[in-house]
Write a structure and sequence with these properties.
7 helices; mainly alpha
Length: 196
Amino acid sequence: MTQSRVGILLLERLATVSSVGLFSSAVTLTAGLAMIPDSLSTAAYPRLCAATQQPNLQLFGSIAGRVVLTNATIGVAVGAVLFVLAEPILGVLYGSAFRHAASALRVLSVGYLFGAVACVGGDSINALGRPAINMLVVGLGLAVTILVTIRLVPSFGITGAATAYALGMLIMAVCIWVGVWVTFRQRSSPNLGRRD
């Protein structure tokens, strides 16, 4: 959720105070809901670590696959509810004036799905002993979010900030899973890439 918090900080510089309040309401809602997939991923982390100690990484792949599938399912379900019911949810939770944040919440709901998938990838790459990859990917996602926010907010306001967040999370999810896949293949096939 660092990316969405950066969006708030940048909005303070690039938009109105009311825009910051509207965006903050949508971010707070998605940040609270993000604890669900984050908790599942964190709960699986000890099992992922133990599975990396096995000579065969099939158990690791099985655990990571089940958790990412569960988180993706949660991401789709929660994201769909937020997308379809954005206005009434914001109206009930924060008041009718916050219904104007519905477009941003809809875009953030897509980013929510990417974040649910990315968090499992982060824990998986850490369990595989490559936390530097996780740090690089998070840094990349943050940099993309900052640059895209600066570019989109002047024209699209809070929806631009939400789009920057969703794009940053998509890039993080793709990059972290590429890192997991490459590391998993290297660990599964130690002779991969060696010439005899």
